[in-house]
Amino acid sequence: MNLIGFKVEDFKSPVLVGSHFEELTAKDLEGKWSVFFFYPGDFTFVCPTELEDLQNNYRNFKDAGCEVYAVSTDSEFVHKAWKDHSDRVSKVEYPMVSDRNFELSKMFGVLIPEEGQALRGSFVVSPECEIVAYEIHSPGIGRSAKELIRKVKAAQFVHDHGDQVCPANWEEGDETLSPGIDLVGKL
């Protein structure tokens, strides 16, 4: 199932922000870039390395005008306990979303129903609340926050410059392409 262009539906989820609880809804996403970063579970093995990597690159996401939402099917209380006890996760400044009712995991197509956990899924969501880029991994494969921020910036560039596209390995400031008859067969 292709999720490109899928509009994030209305939802309501508890979220840990810093050391307090809030609520996240689809309305909160409107008008800004977002990344939904699903991971299998708190108090696991690959997950804390990924959340730490995201934190190490969080300033880059914020500088790009993008909020990061780490999401698992654990409760917000388990998120808090994990943050209080893990050296890696204690650094996290971005919101940690609880999807204990599986609403978001189902919506984004990453739920493993028999395990009650999500696959590793990274989704870039536009200010119009549409998925513009995503990747899904099996639980044993960790992701790179640097590659994810590269995708966010490429998605933003294409969003803002509809007549241009970003070639492979494009980084902010690199040349782009303007598709047209003049390029056919010349690349």
Structure write-up:
This protein is of the alpha+beta class. The protein is about 25% helix and about 25% strand. The protein contains five helices and nine strands; from the N terminus they run βββααβαβαββββα. It has helices at about 45-55, 60-65, 75-85, 105, 145-160; strands at about 10-15, 20-25, 35-40, 65-70, 95-100, 110, 115-120, 120-125, 130-135. The strands form two sheets. The protein has a seven-stranded mixed sheet. A two-stranded antiparallel sheet has the order 6-7. A hairpin with a 4-residue loop joins strand 6 (about 110) and strand 7. The two termini are about 30 Å apart. The model has no long low-confidence stretch (mean pLDDT about 95).
